Amino acid sequence: MCGIIGIIGKSPVTPHLLECLKRLEYRGYDSAGIATLESGLIQRHRSEGKIHNLQERLKTINPQGHVGIGHTRWATHGVPSERNAHPHATEKVAVVHNGIIENFAELRFMLEQKGHVFTSDTDTEVIAHLVTDYLDHGLTPQEATSKALKQFHGAFALALIFQGHDDLILCARRGSPLAIGLGESEMFLGSDALALAPLTQKICYLEEGDWAELSRETFTIYTAEDLPVERPIKETFLTGAMIGKGNHKHFMLKEMLEQPTVMGDVLRAYSNPSTLAPSFPEFPVAAKDIKALRIIACGTSYYAGLTAQYWIEKYARVPVTVSIASEFRYGKPPLPQGGMALFISQSGETADTLAALQYAKDQGQMIVGMVNVPESSIARLSDVVLETHAGPEIGVASTKAFTAQLMVLACFAIYLGGHRNILSEEESKKLFQSLMEVPEAMAHILSEENTVIKIAHALSEARDVIYMGRGTSFAIALEGALKLKELSYIHAEGYAAGEMKHGPIALIDEKVPVIVLAPSDELYGKTASNVEEVIARKAPVILITDLEGQKAFEGRVPLSLSMPTLHPFCLPLLYAIPMQMIAYHTANLKGTDVDQPRNLAKSVTVE
Ligand code: G6P
Prior knowledge:
CATH 3.60.20.10; Rossmann fold; globular
């Protein structure tokens, strides 16, 4: 996490630094800061909290420097405060950093012994002091930085400016993404291409271990061994227009409402409209030869993977294992020769998912990346990329990117099932037709705001909430609980309905609302028995089901949301919607920051 930006411009860079930082705010919003060179001297301006605070402070100062770096922080080492805000600097160098310098404590000790005085609790400050130490010994900025880089353990994307060098920015990448943007006698760098989109469409990504030297007219990239290297320059199609909320109160609301349209876009991308058959890029291993599939992801993307496990095992008969990316490597899992590993990630930059991908690559797996950002690191490292086509998602809690992942995965299950001769053409078409009914059904659910607001009122006073479901509804229950806790800060857990009796039922009393996802499918009878067990223990049940499912509980549950009846295959896509709406409206009632919940970031680039 953390967003970094650097500009060597023809005019004062502060307004552009701030604009780009705003576009990176999804990466963290604990503090923000910039450093510019004013008559050759480093000037720093930092503020705790969101970029807005920094913007207000800079109104009166109005820095004039033509070279500068900026940062928006998600705190790792040191509390969110002004003294811990980036850039960190000495008189000679200022640095912004995304990542963690794992050996900072020993470097700091060594530098303090030499007389360096530290003013923050961060790991980053050692970068500024170590580079300064080498500058003090007469090294050039390039020599000093290259030497220092070799001493850092951990992950980083860095940008540095130097006293007296107003045509120079140095930057480096190890583990965290960094893109150079090419202008007309101007040069830019940023954590992603979206941040640079208002300034340039010409982008050159640093590769793992690279560092680079930027001036207004040119740039040179070096490998970790200091050898000059060429990296391709790409045109991006990202728009420079700041993505707006329209008339909506929050990005999250706007993004929730976009889902019916996004579903249509995904269906168009992964199907052949004339034959009603799924259409996917060619995979290096034929579908019929896939022995096993490993799905790896974090957070909401992980729950998309869990849902897909039910689909792919049932409809394509491929054994699927789903792993949390941050845990995946620790058992050193043996991966089968010719196996497929699918990495699901909205951002395509999540550090844990990237580390897992590297492990799977080293084990000779075919790497499939399912991402919403086609320029992302995961996309660039994958053998096959499945784009989710949700469009930029700004709200930190994932909504449309999640349902877009589900839609691609549903199409993928049909594709695999068909190519493995598990599904007949007729069965495939039937499943596909059910997916085509999703956009309209979603739009209907999104219009049920009044019932959801009543549910939100019931939840807003609760301390704990339980979500439960069976089969794919279990996966969606987990996602529902995550949404509620991240947005409203109410403790919530999702359970497999059948697992309640093995422990969680002990939590239940009249103060713990239980949200039950119970479509009237083949599992309904068993889930209904679990609902009876919960009602018997006096929990207020909130039932999410169709008209048929409501009948058995008429007048016996305080609240119920009526859902459309479609083929069970596509129901996870529909039941995901009330999960989002409930969390959104509960958070709204509680007055929490819906788009930027406390302590979170949208793109998590540290392990
Ligand atoms: C963060 C976000 C979540 C997201 C998760 C995984 O925690 O707040 O919304 O699901 O990261 O991110 P990814 O970009 O890999 O899907």
